[in-house]
C-alpha cells in the first residue's frame, strides 16, 4: 500500500511567485533590441510551456502567438506557423488538438492525449448523438470525403457532399458538416493540416502525424495522466493539485492520484505556501530564484495567468476577461493585458491593433493600487513600443481612459515612435 506523502517544507508566497514566473520563462528581461530567434529557441520555449492555447479573438493578434512574444520578444511568427502547419508531416513539431482548450502541443504529447479522444467517441456528446439520429451515416461520409479528397475545410466538405445546412443548431450554431468535422477532430480521427486564415483545413490524423509519432503505442490512461500532470508541474514550477489538473484539463481526483505517485518517485515534493489553503507541489527541476527581473505584457490566454484563481493567489490580482461583458459594464476593457514587472502584476492595458491606420491602440491604461504610476508608465511604454514593432505598426496611440492614460501618453510622446 502506498504511503501518504505529507508536506513538510514551507515556502513564502513571494518564493512561490518567483518559482512560477521562472518556470514559465519570464524571469529575465529581454534585450533592448530585437534578438534573432530561431527554431531552437522556439522549441525550447514550447517544451517549457507545454502548450499554447488557441482562441479566435483577433483584436490584437491570435492568442497562440502572444505568449511567445512575451518570452522571446520580436520573433517571426512564421517559425510557429511552420512548426504547427508545415507542408510535410515529417516537419511537424506541434500538433493542434484539445489539451487545455483548443491548443498547440509538442507533437510528442499526442499519445498522451489519446485516452481523452477514445472517451469522446462513445461519450455523452449531445450534438454528435443528435447528428447520428438525424443524419445516419453522415459522420462516415465526412470521414470518407476527407480520406479521398483531403485536406478540406468544413465548407469544402459541405460542397462535395451537398450536405444539409444548419437545420437545428449544432455546436455554437455550426452547420451539420462543421459539427461532424469538429466531432471527428475532437476524437482524433482527423486533425488540422493547416489553417486558411483562421479556418481549419482537415486531413486524416494518420496523414498529419509524423510516422514516428503515429506508430507509438497508446499508453494506459493512468500512465498518460501521470505524465501530463508531471509536465504540468514542470511548467508551473509550483502549484496545487487543482492548478496542475487544469493545465491539461484532467479531473482533480485523477491529478491527486498522479501527484501521490510522483511524490513517491521524488518528481514532486508537497510543500506548504504561506497564505495558500491547499498543499502545493514543487517540481524537482523548479528553480527557486532569489529575485526575478522580467517584464512582459501578458495576453488573457497566457499560461501564467489563465487560471484566474491561481493568478489571484500568486499575485493578489483579481483578473477577469471582459470580452463577453457589455461595454457599459466593463471595468478595465475588452482585451486586457496585465503587465508583469519583476514579480508583480503592476498594470492593465486594453489593447487593439488598427492595422489599416498602422496604430497600436491602448484603449485604456491602468496602474494597480500600491504601485508607482511613473515606473509603471515607463515599463508599459517600453513593452508597447516593442509590441508595435513586432506587429508592424508605426504608432502607439493612448486613448483617454484609465488612471494611467495621462502619464503613459506623456512617456510615449517623449519617446517618439515605436
What descriptors fit this protein?
418 residues; alpha+beta; five-stranded mixed beta sheet; four-stranded mixed beta sheet; 17 helices; 15 strands; globular
Secondary-structure blueprint of this entry?
Elements: E1 9-11, H1 13-23, H2 39-49, E2 52-53, H3 66-72, H4 77-84, E3 94-98, E4 102-106, H5 114-121, H6 126-134, H7 138-149, E5 152-153, H8 154-161, H9 176-186, E6 190-196, E7 199-204, H10 205-208, H11 211-214, H12 221-236, E8 238-240, H13 241-247, H14 252-264, E9 268-273, E10 280-283, E11 295-297, H15 308-315, E12 336-341, E13 344-354, E14 359-367, H16 373-391, E15 395-398, H17 405-415
Parallel strand pairs: 1-9, 14-15
Antiparallel strand pairs: 2-4, 3-4, 5-7, 6-7, 8-10, 9-10, 11-12, 12-13, 13-14
Helix pairs in contact: 7-9, 12-13, 12-14, 13-14, 16-17
